[in-house]
Amino acid sequence: MVSRDPMNLKALSLGAVLGFVVAVIPSCGAPPCGPANCAGCCDASNKCVPPAATGPNACGTKGVACVNCATNNQTCNAATSVCEGSTGTGGGTGTGGGSATGGGSATGGGSATGGGTGTGGGSATGGGNGGTACDVLTQQSCTAGESCLYVDNMGNGRCFAGACDVVSQNCPTATDKCSYAGLQDGGVARACAPAGPQGDGAACGPSDNCGKGLVCINSVCRKYCYDNATCGGGNKLCIGLIQIGGTQEIPSTCVTLSACDPLTQNCPQGQGCYLSNSSGAVCATAGTVAANGACGQGAGQCVPGTVCLLTSPTAGACKSFCNRDGGMPNCGTGQCGGLINAADGGVLDVGACQ
């Protein structure tokens, strides 16, 4: 036994987050412009115009008909996509304001369905910036038609309006599933689409041919979830967060974990042994960030054999695991520092090279 170095370094564990990349269902053809596929408004040619696009002719959001604010000597509010100006904020009951299409409390504005500056609003169906803060695990604080989803890997949730919910699978057509789909304007939103035939854990393709409540991750169908109970218990945990381009929503999926040894990296090919808040060292999909590269908070996961050491509260750098008892692997002429789990403060048996 060699004497242990007294320094302790905080490790950014997998925690409630495992990083995955998910294929988004592409938009097919040119369906009629509307709330299901347009974050902005629909112009006269059936084209989706981005929210609050430049010009008086393109005001509106959530797939409503584009409004010409200039008709009433008004301008389009870039934050709410509602006509405002000389005839009063929102334009009374006229086109583009008040209770009419595109404004007030009607579709696309005010505090109603996901629009304007109201709770759960933003600029995209199921996306945007999110509304009020909420608890993802209990799905509290959100109004009807909204889902509470993570916005980062620190457990913070926000209410997002959307056409459907990926966990409750509340699409009106029984054969449809709720998942993420590409919009004509380049954004991404939750939408109902025909469910595929593949079950939980089955192989799947880039077009996401998984069944209801499932999504294709690394060619395997995984279950959407809000908490561990949704996953069925055992070694399945709701810790697989999906980063999806085009939306700030970060949905969760169930992940089957198996114990492993960080020093020997005894996981199956394509996986690495990483640290977890609640399950110790577990096998997870291999990361791609090399030693000394930036990791955490969207920067990516370290390659097998390395751990993300905190350099800030949410991010760090990948450093090699080492044996603090003097065995292999060692750090050569460098020091092997002790590790503290950043999530719970627990001291770990393995170390990291400095």
Question: What do these coordinates show?
Answer:
The protein is mainly beta and 354 residues long. It has a domain at 40-113. The protein is 1% helix and 31% strand. It has one helix and 23 strands. It has one helix at 228-231, and strands spanning 8-11, 18-21, 41-42, 48-49, 64-65, 74-76, 83-85, 133-134, 146-150, 157-161, 176-182, 188-194, 214-217, 220-225, 236-243, 252-256, 271-276, 280-285, 294-295, 306-310, 316-322, 336-341, 347-353. Strands 1, 19, 20, 21, 22 and 23 form a six-stranded mixed sheet that branches. It has a five-stranded mixed sheet with strand order 2-15-16-14-13. A three-stranded mixed sheet has the order 4-3-5, with no helix packed on it. The longest helix is centred in the middle third of the chain and has 4 residues, at 228-231. It is elongated, with a radius of gyration of 24 Å. The model is unreliable at 1-7, 15-30 and 87-129 (pLDDT under 50).
